[in-house]
Amino acid sequence: MLLERRALQTELPALAGLGNVDLCELLASLGFPVDGVETKQGETILEVDITANRGDTLSQRGMARDLAAKLKAPLASLPHTQLTEGPALFPVRLEADACPIYATAILDLGANAGTPTEVVSFLASMGSNAKQLPAVDASNELLHRYGHPTHAFDADTLKGTLLVRWGREGETLRTLDGVDRKLTSNDLVIADEAGAIALAGVMGGDATKVTSDTKRVLLESAWFDPRVVRRMAHRHGLHSDASYRFGRGADPAMAKIARDLLAARLQAWAGATLKGAWTAGQIPEARPAVTLRLGTLGRIAGAPIDLAEAAAHLVQLGCSVKIQGEELCAVPPTWRHDLALEEDLAEEVLRLRGFDCIDSVLPPLEGAPLPLAPNYLQARNLAYRLAHVGFHQTVTLGFISPDADAAFAGSDNPAEGRTLGNPLGQEYSVMRASLLTSLRATAELNLRQGAKEVKLFEIGPIYRSTGNGPSEVMVLALVWTGTLGGEDYLTRARAVQAADLLGVARDLGAQGTPQVRELGEGMLALEIPLADLPAHEERIIPKFTPFSRFPALERDLSLLVDLAQPYAVLASAMTEAVGKAAGECFKGLGCVDVFRHKSLPAGRQAWLLRLRFQAGDRTLTSDEVDGWVTAALEAARTLGAELRG
Amino acid sequence: MDLTLLPPDITAAHSGFELAVAACADLDALMRLKGEFTGRDGSHAARMMDLLKTAPKEQKRELGAAINGLKNAWEESIKKRQSELEASKKRGTSLASSWDPDLPPPMPAHGARHPLNRLMDRLVDVFRPLGYHVEEGPETETEAHNFDGLNIPEDHPARGSADTFYFAAHEGKLLRTHTSPVQVRVLKRLAPDIEKLGGIRFLAPGRVYRKDEIDPTHSPMFHQVEGMLVGHNIGMHHLKGTLAYAMKALFGPAADVRFRPSYFPFVEPGCEVDVRCPLCGGSGCRVCKGSGWVEILGAGLVHPNVLRFAGIDPTIWSGFAFGMGVERTAMMVSQTPDLRLFFENDQRFLKAMGGLD
Ligand SMILES: [Zn+2]
Fold first, then answer.
1. Chain A interface, mutation test: which of B103, B228, B229, B238, most A Cβ atoms within 10 Å?
2. For labelling alongside B242, which of A114, A624, B63, B357 has CA 20 to 30 A away?
3. 3-class DSSP assignment, residue B238
4. CATH superfamily, domain at A374-532
């Protein structure tokens, strides 16, 4: 919202002594941070942030009123002469509770003397151009100056009784912006006998608008239910200055006053003659009183505050206040729709005292802390470990394009259930079924940027379609590509291989053989659900397992096997055989070298297998170990392996 | 020994030979040198033998003598140096004599955690001593958790499809717009045990989504850290004390906080929290736009309706909640000029901004 320093000061003369910087500080301390200050045609304009609950401050006077409460300085009196009301020249019927009061007047317009230059300049400060139509400019000025939206109809276009009623299905209205609006029974409209002529509190109709030919105007100054106005503005996508203010709660007591002020301006600017003024309905009853207890106030403030002091602040804000014992009872003013709970009153007291007065105290620890969640610790520790072995953690957007998603989504995970109804665009429309698409794009970007080796990981949710909406599965995805090593004098450069990635996964505790995928030439990746990795271990030190202090013996077997021989099959056959023979003394089997060369028999390769033996209670003898190795070799032979000469 | 018969490059090599032998700091180097001078293929000696084969008959004798003399001299020197080196290796002094400490050692190739994760985890560490644990919630939420339970009115603009992403096939399912629905989930879950627990304290870091176009200061996905405490007689002073502690722990002892009134439907009173600019210490700079303060959090006392919605009696229990924008804070602290860098994931950026801890 825009504030013009001069107009603000007209409402609150006490601001005269305050510099702009101090004014900004003051506004911020009251909850209205200033986003910018600029000078436009000699006027200082402040752009102020106003929270949704403070519709009462959406004008120069409204803001001045809040500042006045803080400064305990008087507001200028309104230049207001009350009109004498008479019989209705147009019958007005209020058929909906959403409009409790509708003040109006009819004036014959005389010669247009033009909108006064100071008003033209004020409107310019508000970012609005004067139309040189007195009824329009005056209404606009009142809105920005006093916060109450009003409207003027060309009275000669109106037919019969004016109604404030709910819209009818199928009814249409062309609004001032030239758009034909389809109305529903949730739209509150002003209507004459021919149909709707305005969307209440949002925008007037085109057919009844004031033009330079208008001879006679009917003024409208009413109050509409904020919820109804907000819904209408939202439904029609029509956010006007009026709907903004009515939607955040205007002051019903201003209905008649704004009508009077508008009439007075037309008399002054356009030689208008008042034909009659009247009001349908009345100001709704005052909001219910709110009770603030001494204890609550002290609890929220963190220190006891006298109810008398609290009352003084609330009175400054326009509340009428009574103190009874340890309770304060406040009736909010007609312009404050946000004071409904005792917490609201306490906040107002603190706000006027200044939040800087609040002490700084750590709360007592009332119960024992709960442990950190194992899931959180698991993910965090994984990230540490991967970072230490050279991987970079990425954060990528959760939504991707349907095409990118399809590349890694299983057929049991249809994209429909994961698709947004209102995405930023097609490329951000599906909650991803895999992190791999995003990691591939990130890896490619790094390669394009000249990275020789790209090692990335991401920990995040992937999405599965279920009947009840998307469910989330936390996964770890790894991608590794490019050249490994070769950056120093000890290691030689080589391409990244699937076994490298698998080794990392195994090291993290992945069971079995996770599927390593090739996302591009030499770009290797895998994705593992965090549930498949070891959970965070609660125990500080695991249970003791005894270990042998006797020497271990290792024996190597160089075997010729078929190129197609699966390692797991051979290893398990040998393990089973040795296990049977050696029992506890067999400590494992590993492959330490793979040799493929044209010097070997066609279709064969050589594996160097290492068997490890150790006893818990003695030093093993060469003879017994030889027997076990023979058993292993026999098992290997049954699968077509032979000892390499 | 007449060397004039030999090619000039070999005589040149010979003149530097003794020096080269002495410079061999270890056996490897010496063996390389040996290969170069007396090896079977391609060495100086081998080339001389080739030369001898093609030499004119009358020169052969003289040349042969010269070559042999040279070869013998080389072999002897190498042998001598070899025994020296072997002896020194036995004494365990070879490293000291052979390794040049100016040679850059091979460095372990480390990666990095993402700066946003680092900042969130740091916050967890900061709040842990105050008894906060970590809670997580799903990114796919219901209107009940994201709005209703947080006292956000039914016609609040944030609920509109212009601000919030909704799923096409599932009415009322949305991507959470803040981490605050974790409040609703945790309060509901812990409400039956709240007496026994002595209140509730937790931190909820996570990803959230809002319908903002991607630009240097906006992203449709970003991170927040939510914090909440529920106890007896909790007031604004407790919120201030907690955040003052946390900001000092995060930004250093000079950090200070300032509260300004604000409004969020799920707190009352509500405030925005400024921290004394960590870059200029409050004297005013570009980051704080000269004010000495930067806005970093939204906070307030938990609205009684939020407690009531979760089944907690607001006449007995009270609390505070706060939410921090992670990207915003990370950008401010690091002076990263463009938010998109956090989602681009260039390894150079990650290594520089993320690190290992
Ligand atoms: Zn600064």
1. B238
2. B357
3. helix
4. Bira Bifunctional Protein; Domain 2 (3.30.930.10)
